[in-house]
User: Fold this.
Amino acid sequence: MSRLLPVLLVLGVACTSSSKESAPTHSGADSAPTDDTQPTDDTEPTDDSEPLTDDSEPPTEDEDAEWGDDGDIGPEHWGSLDEDYATCDEGLVQSPINLTEDLLVEGYDPLTVLWSSTAIRAYNSGHYIRYEVDEGSSYVISNEGRFDLDQFHFHSLSEHTVDGQHAAMEAHFVHYLDTNPDRALVVTFLMDPTGESDTDLFGMEGALKFHQAVALPESETPTDLGGTIDLNELGELFGRAHLSYEGSLTTPACTEGVRFYISGAILAPEIADIEAFTAVYDHNYRPTQPLNGRSVTAHSGEPG
Ligand SMILES: [Zn+2]
Assistant:
């Protein structure tokens, strides 16, 4: 048990503080406890929603029912908007979830993060801002094999909660298994101005591109942001202690077969970064989902 505590404590510190300082724009959503029951405001994040099999292509939204973050097309209704979205209602291992200490089971589930320098293309689909990387430039190795990084994106507030508390934002780095594109792995960082990690997003260059992308007009066509950013340092920050569990995409079609790895390191973006993002998307997160008996593996970094 003692090995599990640090991870949750680190997560807990950041998330608790976030309710005070972060995401000033939606204090109402912030204060909501566990949100399974939450009403409307989650917006859809980003690209999680995309079909696992054609991740290399921009979304073709006209093929499926429109969905959103609020009202009649908000998260509570996704499962009935389109038969392709039925898993949003019927799935048994949906994401995100609320993390609590009693869910943690100590286990050996290592993840080696091998990210590197890449060009970045981005677009704002109206649902999310998606950042695409050079194919094959960055990958991770888990017990299942090699997963290649396809894209990353952000949610505000965080999708995962710790003891019912949201962090200001959450970053999702979406990878696909090289031998099976239906299997996905999401490297997850909680982000909060009061986070413990002494780091911003991706250094100055990365922060610049983050802001460039946030300012893009809506379009289905990715824009090359110019130059490259180096994801290596961020990958190293992921660290050895983390949580992992079996879940789903957090946007329609809520496809399952997604393994989440949640870093014990909390990114500490500048307030200006958060404000720039929330000016565009201030509640693109899905409420937490029922556990249905799932546990969460706490990997302390040591074989065991
Ligand atoms: Zn996401």
Notes: The longest strand covers residues 180-191. Residues 52 and 174 are 10 Å apart (CA to CA). The chain has one domain: 4-299. Residues 45-46, 48, 153, 155, 172, 250 surround zinc ion (CB under 6 Å).
